[in-house]
Write a structure and sequence with these properties.
The protein is built from 5 helices and 8 strands, in the order E-E-H-H-H-E-E-E-H-E-H-E-E. By secondary structure, the protein is α+β, with helices and mostly antiparallel strands. The longest helix is centred in the middle third of the chain and has 14 residues. The radius of gyration is 16 Å and the shape is globular.
Length: 185
């Protein structure tokens, strides 16, 4: 972990940007987590797909990708720096809007342990601090109770339903629109 710098740290997690060298760990975790992610999420599971995915998050100024990493002590110290999940801010628009759209996923070994909740809190601090955003949105399929619980726990409010919002797994899917503004924190 010494060659990677955390952007923010909490008691059990820390966040840092994606790097190209994370491909092996990220894709292994994605493959291990297929049952958890389906039918909601399809993270890259091979090195080529990861390189394409990470390059957008690393190089596109309208996106910011964060890896949620376990810190020493989260699981006896043996997992220090292990990737627990990821949180991306997509479609960042500045100016009078200052908004971005969240996308995220936990990996199976970290699911249900509160690591993503802590990691999301760190990302929110970074988004409303150094990134200078005013609003974040999360668009979630209505049946994805775990994802809804994550944003609800972070203080997001339900703003409505967007029918046929995203093309996922071969079909246009409805999504609930959840949002959080800087003033709501």
């Amino acid at each position: 972990m010494s060659d990677r710098t955390y952007l923010a740290e909490g008691p059990r997690t820390a966040i840092r940007p994606f790097t190209y060298t994370d491909a092996d760990e990220f894709t292994a975790r994605a493959r291990e987590s297929r049952a958890l992610h389906r039918p909601w999420l399809f993270p890259p599971a091979d090195p080529d797909a990861y390189a394409a995915y990470a390059s957008v998050l690393i190089e596109d100024p309208a996106r910011a990708g964060f890896l949620v990493c376990e810190r020493n002590g989260a699981a006896g110290g043996a997992t220090d720096g292990a990737i627990a999940g990821f949180i991306n801010i997509n479609n960042i628009v500045m100016g009078g809007f200052r908004c971005g759209a969240l996308g995220y996923g936990a990996f199976a070994h970290a699911a249900g342990r509160g690591l993503m909740s802590e990691g999301l809190g760190l990302v929110l601090g970074y988004a409303f601090g150094p990134l200078g955003l005013h609003r974040l949105e999360a668009n979630i399929q209505p049946g994805n109770s775990g994802s809804i619980a994550l944003v609800r726990g972070a203080g997001f409010r339900l703003e409505g339903l967007s029918p046929d919002f995203l093309f996922i797994d071969g079909a246009w899917r409805d999504h609930e629109r959840w949002a959080l503004t800087e003033e709501m924190r």
